[in-house]
Amino acid sequence: MAWAARDVVPLADITLSSLTVIRPYKSRAGSPRIITPDASTAVSTALIKVGQVVQFDTGTSSAAHRVIRCSTAGGHPNLSTEFAGIAAASDTSDGSTTGQGEGKRQISVWAADANTEFLFPTKIAGVASTLVGTALALGFDSTLAIHYLAANSTAGDRRVWVTEVPNPGDTNGYVAGYFTSTAINPTVGRR
Questions:
Q1: pLDDT tens for residues 165-188?
Q2: Average pLDDT in the 93-109 region?
Q3: pTM, two decimal places
Q4: Nearest alpha-carbon partner for 82 in 66, 94, 97
Q5: Does 77 sit behind a cis peptide bond, omega within 30 degrees of 0 on the bond before it?
Q6: What share of the chain is helix, strand, coil (3-state, %, to 5)?
Q7: CB 165, CB 112: distance < 8 Å
Q8: pLDDT tens track for 18-60
């Protein structure tokens, strides 16, 4: 069969939006593991939304078992070593201490464990299959309130290992990957 121009799949120029989310992609266990830690206090503009990266709140020792949205500052990199995973639900509270107590403000989180790979949006012009086997930096777009991956030349800034590029060539395309073991809180699980 002869190759024809109609067989070419056009490359996409993806526009990221506030609806762009990180989500589970593959799980060796069949389904991603869900953990349900309590949400910590946060200002209303920093409440956790579905698809955002969450980490344990190390700001105070009394809240170290609760989760917060990672990297509320714009840009990258996020250098957390307390990642819990990706929010599978939004925090519907007002972010205050009202209603807080053990088990009273639980939030579902897809665990950043050894079994789950996630699909991450990027801010990379033309994602390439050469990204497989490399690590990228995690960033936060404060305007859109979304997390994304970006290329970064500093090894210490890299938080996610890329395992697959589903659509090479896409601008702001998606990559599959998992959190580096040194970035995950040990209570969630290491690789």
A1: 999 999 999 999 999 888 888 888
A2: 75
A3: 0.86
A4: 66
A5: yes
A6: 10, 30, 60
A7: no
A8: 999 999 999 988 899 999 998 888 877 788 999 999 999 887 7
Pairing of strands 109-111, 135-141: unpaired
In 3-state terms, what secondary structure has residue 117?
strand
Structure tokens, 133: 């086997």
- The identity of residue 138, as a single letter, is L
Look-up: residue for tokens 């609760």? Answer: 66
* Stated length of the chain: 191
Percentage of the chain exceeding pLDDT 70: 85
List of residues 6+ apart from 26 with CB closer than 8 A: 116, 117, 176
Classify each residue of 106-120 as buried b or exposed e, where b means 16 or more C-beta atoms within 10 Å of its C-beta: bbebbbbbbbbbbbb
Taking alpha carbons only, the member of 27, 30, 36, 160 closest to residue 89 is 36
Q: Cβ-count burial of 139 within 10 angstroms (0-12 exposed, 13-18 middle, 19+ buried)? A: buried
Residue 81's pLDDT is 81
Angle at 95 between CA 70 and CA 80, to 5 degrees: 15
H-type alpha helices, the chain:
none
